[in-house]
Amino acid sequence: MVNNIIEYNKEKTISYQDYRDLVKQLVEDKSTTGNEKTEALVEYTMLNDRRMKRWDKTVKVSEEAQQKVSQFKGDVTWVVLTESWCGDAAHVIPVINKIAELNDGIDLKFLFRDENEALMNQFLTNGGKAIPKLIMIDNTTGDVVNTYGPRPTAATKLVNDYKEAHGKLTPEFKEDLQRWYNKDKGQSAIEDLLQLL
This protein's superkingdom (predicted)? Predict the structure, then answer.
């Protein structure tokens, strides 16, 4: 547990629907979030809009998982740091939203990583600004009670094992990871998120 109080600009947070609307607008404008506005990142934003649209429709939460989420008695805010071009975010964020929608005690909000560097720097993954990063804040105390991300535990193991064996992630591996997400259908992320509650 991190168990410290963090400062973040609540006025800058946006809802999931606002985030989805913004990504759709970025696609129309041929743009992207973040400090860099490269053609590649614009392409990733377009691809991620399609991915999120698909996951919004197809992610299934089992009755057992729904029951566990409904039994959560906390009052928390889940602040997710992200950017529109992030491939992991496109697969994970719709799942986070599905879980948050199942309990009124979970207030889901989004912030952009590059606009919130001081906050991001408090939640690095192996020294890097990996996203998406979910920060679970107790609304009564303001304490950070848990974090999650940037990807499901099973996907993290795949990434770490590949890096250990090959030194870095290749384009071929990244395609394999996308196939893993498609086959998994959000279920690993759901399992991980239930551990937060």
Answer: Bacteria
The model's pLDDT over 27-41, given as tens digits with 9 standing for 90+, comes to 999 999 999 999 999
Residue 21 lies in a domain: yes
Is the Cβ–Cβ distance between 56 and 96 less than 8 Å?
A: no
For residue 186, pLDDT over 80 is answered with yes
Distance CA 50, CA 125 (A): 27
Please state whether the predicted TM-score (pTM) of the whole model is above 0.85.
yes
Residue 158 and residue 142 in contact, taking contact as beta carbons nearer than 8 Å: no
- Whether 5 is covered by a domain: the verdict is no
| Residue 3 domain flag | no
Beta strands in the chain (DSSP E): 76-82, 106-112, 133-138, 144-148
Burial class (CB in 10 A: 0-12, 13-18, 19+), 57: exposed
CA distance 77 to 88: 21
Q: Phi and psi at residue 61, in whole multiples of 5°?
A: -105, 120
Residue among 178, 177, 140, 142 nearest 160 (CA):
177
What CATH number corresponds to the domain at position 149? Answer: 3.40.30.10
DSSP 74: -
Helix H, strand E, coil C: the string for 17-30 is HHHHHHHHHHHHHC
Number of domains in the chain: 1
41, β-bridge pairs: none
